[in-house]
Amino acid sequence: MALRRGQGYAAVNYPTGMNLGGDPSQALIHATTTGAFVVTLSSVDLGQGLRTVVAQCAAEVLGIPYGSVIIDTADTDTGPHCMGTFASRGTHRVGNAVIMAAREAREVMLQVAADMMEVDASDLETDGTGHVAVRGAPSKRIHISDIAGAAHFTQGRSISGRGMFLKERSFPDPETGAMDPDSCQAHACTVAEVEVDDETGVVEVVSLHNTYEIGRALNPALVNQQVEGGAWMGVSHALFESTEPYYPHSREHGPIDYSQYLMPGPADTPAQTSVVLERPADNGPFGAKGIGEMTANAPIPAIANAIFDAVGVRLTTMPFTPERVLRGLDELAERSGP
Predict the structure, then answer these.
(1) How many helices (H) and strands (E) does the chain have?
(2) Which of 102, 115, 101 has its CA nearest to residue 151?
(3) Is the pLDDT of residue 250 over 70?
């Protein structure tokens, strides 16, 4: 009996957004009297960093510091419309809507500044520090806090903007069935290395090597965390998590809390390397595609292929438990004969 090592890989492509009558998301932006900008959304940050990314988008377009952007995630009663945080659509749909709203607000901001400085708005530019300056004469500038104050208390204007991004619904061609169901597609490949104990059937994922093509990485740190966190979920699905055979009545027979529900712990977490390839999407916010659910997908078949490479057992039902590995080894032994 021995510990056997194997390698396996899997590649996936994953769509951004859905074909749901436009699949729209809306954003509203307004400046406060102090020069901060509030972005109001109904889009929920599930922990993937959506609030951070859309704040980056707003700051980039407005030409102000990131810290001057406040994200207000309201609710469906008080906030602008959003289809929901699903289909890896958050950055793409909401980011585009925020960019549209920020562009409209920026036009008002520059016009208010132009009236204050008695210049043409087309001659003004932002410098990213919160100042609006005359192009070619950076010393002639005014801070956004002064612009906001003038808009509110002198000019009686609202520095605000609205944005809604949607994709026209695509219907299948009656002759061919062809359609355009999403906005763009991201791609990924994972190589898994496993160690299988052919006596106990225990599988250990030793390492995962992930490569993702996701358009443009608006926040590389968040992208890397998403990839590695999703890969951890993939390992959990592959080796530990299951509601069978009790689903949907798992609470009657199965685990009822996290002290009983099996998931990988620190000792079960494999070493990971992640590479991000940037191929900007034409319709994405600054070229970004979606990266969300897909990060848990590729590791699962990669682990299955690595188990097959290690011991010759082809597993098609998750989780890949020791019992299933041993049953597979027994079947191989029976086929080979005495």
Answers:
(1) 7, 11
(2) 115
(3) no
- The residue assigned the tokens 């699949």 is 23
| 259: phi then psi, degrees, rounded to nearest 5 | -80, -20
Could you tell me which of 34, 59, 28, 36 has the C-alpha nearest to residue 127?
59
Spell out the alpha helix ranges (H) of the chain. 50-62, 95-117, 144-150, 220-239, 250-253, 299-311, 322-336
Cα angle value 180/184/186 (rounded, 5°): 130
The alpha carbon of 296 is separated from its chain's Cα centroid by a whole number of angstroms, namely 12
**pLDDT tens digit sequence for 301-314:** 999 999 999 999 99
**CA–CA distance, 263 with 127 (Å, rounded to integer):** 48
The predicted pLDDT at position 319 comes to: 93
> Which H or E run includes 195?
strand 184-197
- Which CA distances in Å does 268 have to 191, 235, 271? 17, 9, 10
β-bridge pairing 25-31 and 160-165: antiparallel
DSSP string over 74-141: --TTTSPPB--S-TT-IIIIIHHHHHHHHHHHHHHHHHHHHHHHTS-GGGEEE-SSSEEEETTEEEEE
**pLDDT at 19 exceeding the cut of 80:** no
Q: Note if the bond before 245 is cis, omega within 30 degrees.
A: yes
180-209: burial string, b at 16+ Cβ within 10 Å, e else: eebbbbbbbbbbbbbebbbeebebebeebb
pLDDT at 75: 78
Tokens 């490949």 locate to: 189
Pull the structure tokens for residue 300.
Answer: 């699962």
Q: How many CA atoms lie within 13 Å of 190's alpha carbon, on the beta-carbon side?
A: 31
Q: Kindly state the average pLDDT of the residues 182-209.
A: 95
Q: Give pTM, 2 decimals.
A: 0.90
